[in-house]
């Protein structure tokens, strides 16, 4: 009976995660807050997989100059996305990705619960699982469209739970799954390998994981991604320390203080690190499992480009959230801290963060009705026929991607038969409203006509288009 009750509580926690994550995602989609970058990119890629093709994302290829046949395997090494393709045979649209993401993120609570139960007991396991489900790194990942990060907490939690259970095959299988998620998951695996080097009976596997992880990250970024049309240096973000890896190594050896200073430049990096440590009230620092998170944290915090990498927003913190919770559990076990009090404190922190992150949308009444601008957005997308190519403003592209070939409305005219533009609010990738208005004026001067204009949204049609 006790086991049944435990499982019912766990099932309720997971169900809560699925409902909350789905709800938040669909609020964004319905309120035209989702974006071409990145929801449409993944939607086009998975749809292409579902048609037994390479994961082509024309919106990414055209906007970033790679061409209309660009495969997202040339952007990030994420073949695991192919596992979602069968879902598109059931329902073809970005909603499928958002629901799948909700299930993946919430499901990670199960192996994390098992890990915690073994270490600290059932009651603490329930509290930790619930804290994970409402934690800000997961919520912020859900709040920014869909990403391959959705696979990482589940696979990481499985790997750690299988390690705790002494099941080497399970550890290896989960590790191999992680290497199919993204090229830098090799760094996560290498960090886990460093941790295993501290465990006497796991040292051989630890050394192997360090070598495999580092070797894989190099191979994926320098060989696989260029093979599929990308560039090996596309995401090089360390110009402040060196023009290439050898330059960074030289800086680290000759001016190590510059490397240390980069960890806090800009200062928001320190805020992010502080918020991450607060997830476990600092208990993660008392576990060698924290070593697992270090490579991915260094990858982000040493960067001087791509500001999204180091802020609390977006999905990047979700790559290590399970590691932090597991390290916190292990730290409490090792130091014999009062486990239940600690778990209650962790839950209080998780709840306390809610008003400051996207989950606050759940109790914001403006989330549940469309304002005048959102009504105009709905009218604008309804005017675009099915089966056409359309250049769409970033936040309206997701509403069109399931029925049209969507390109991003950007600075370069693509001469699509239909254009959905925005001259009322600044939008990616433009530098300001003046540039957006000039872009619309240019199209009007070159054969397009206005078929709709309201609340800043403008729908243009090329001469002769149906």
Key features of this structure:
466 residues, mainly alpha, 2 domains, five-stranded mixed β-sheet, 20 helices, 5 strands, 54% helix, globular
Summarize the structure.
This protein is mainly alpha-helical. It has helices at residues 2-30, 36-50, 58-63, 85-90, 94-107, 109-120, 122-133, 136-142, 152-164, 168-179, 185-196, 203-227, 245-254, 256-262, 268-278, 294-301, 321-335, 339-353, 372-382, 433-444, and strands spanning 389-392, 405-408, 418-422, 448-454, 457-462.
Protein architecture, described:
By secondary structure, this protein is mostly helical. It folds into two domains: 2-363, no CATH class; 372-462, no CATH class. It is built from 20 helices and five strands. It has a five-stranded mixed beta sheet, with helices on both faces. β4 (448-454) and β5 form a beta hairpin. α6 (109-120) runs parallel beside α9, α9 packs antiparallel against α10 and α11 (185-196) runs antiparallel to α12. The protein starts with a helix and ends with a strand.
Secondary structure layout plus pairing:
Elements: H1 2-30, H2 36-50, H3 58-63, H4 85-90, H5 94-107, H6 109-120, H7 122-133, H8 136-142, H9 152-164, H10 168-179, H11 185-196, H12 203-227, H13 245-254, H14 256-262, H15 268-278, H16 294-301, H17 321-335, H18 339-353, H19 372-382, E1 389-392, E2 405-408, E3 418-422, H20 433-444, E4 448-454, E5 457-462
Parallel strand pairs: 1-2, 1-3
Antiparallel strand pairs: 3-5, 4-5
User: Kindly, what is the distance between the CA atoms of the first and last residues, rounded to a whole number of angstroms?
Assistant: 65 Å
| Spatial sequence of strands, sheet with the most strands | 2-1-3-5-4
Integer count of domains: 2
Estimated helix fraction: 40-55%
């Amino acid at each position: 009976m006790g086991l049944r009750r435990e499982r019912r509580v766990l099932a309720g926690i997971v169900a809560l995660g699925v409902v909350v994550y789905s709800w938040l995602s669909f609020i964004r989609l319905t309120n035209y807050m989702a974006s071409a970058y990145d929801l449409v990119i993944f939607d086009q890629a998975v749809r292409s997989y579902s048609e037994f093709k390479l994961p082509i994302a024309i919106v990414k290829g055209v906007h970033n100059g790679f061409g209309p046949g660009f495969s997202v395997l040339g952007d990030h090494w994420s073949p695991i996305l192919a596992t979602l393709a069968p879902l598109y045979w059931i329902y073809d649209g970005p909603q499928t990705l958002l629901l799948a993401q909700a299930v993946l993120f919430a499901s990670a609570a199960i192996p994390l619960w098992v890990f915690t139960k073994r270490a600290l007991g059932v009651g603490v396991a329930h509290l930790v699982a619930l804290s994970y489900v409402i934690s800000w790194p997961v919520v912020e990942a859900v709040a920014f469209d869909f990403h391959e990060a959705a696979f990482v907490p589940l696979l990481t939690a499985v790997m750690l739970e299988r390690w705790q259970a002494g099941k080497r095959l399970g550890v290896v299988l989960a590790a191999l799954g992680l290497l199919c998620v993204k090229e830098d998951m090799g760094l996560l695996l290498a960090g886990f390998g460093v941790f295993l080097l501290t465990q006497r009976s796991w040292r051989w596997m630890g050394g192997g994981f360090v070598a495999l992880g580092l070797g894989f990250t190099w191979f994926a970024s320098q060989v696989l991604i260029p093979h599929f049309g990308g560039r090996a240096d596309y995401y090089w973000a360390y110009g402040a320390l060196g023009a290439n890896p050898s330059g960074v190594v030289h800086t680290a050896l000759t001016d190590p203080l510059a490397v240390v200073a980069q960890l806090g430049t800009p200062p928001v990096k320190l805020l992010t690190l502080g918020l991450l440590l607060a997830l476990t009230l600092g208990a993660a620092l008392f576990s060698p499992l924290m070593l697992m998170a270090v490579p991915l944290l260094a990858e982000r915090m040493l960067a001087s480009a791509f500001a999204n990498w180091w802020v609390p927003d977006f999905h990047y913190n979700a790559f290590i959230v399970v590691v932090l919770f597991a390290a916190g559990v292990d730290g409490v076990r090792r130091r014999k801290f009062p486990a239940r009090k600690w778990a209650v404190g962790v839950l209080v922190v998780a709840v306390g963060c809610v008003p400051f992150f996207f989950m606050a949308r759940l109790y914001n009444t403006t989330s549940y009705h469309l304002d005048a601008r959102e009504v105009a957005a709905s009218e604008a997308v309804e005017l675009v026929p099915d089966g056409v190519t359309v250049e769409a403003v970033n936040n309206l592209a997701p509403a069109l991607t399931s029925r049209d070939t969507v390109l991003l409305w950007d600075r370069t005219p693509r001469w699509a038969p239909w254009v959905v533009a925005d001259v009322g609010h600044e939008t990616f990738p433009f530098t300001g409203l003046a540039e957006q208005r000039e872009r619309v004026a240019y199209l009007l001067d070159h054969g397009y006509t206005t078929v709709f204009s309201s609340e800043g949204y403008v729908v243009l049609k090329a001469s002769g288009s149906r």
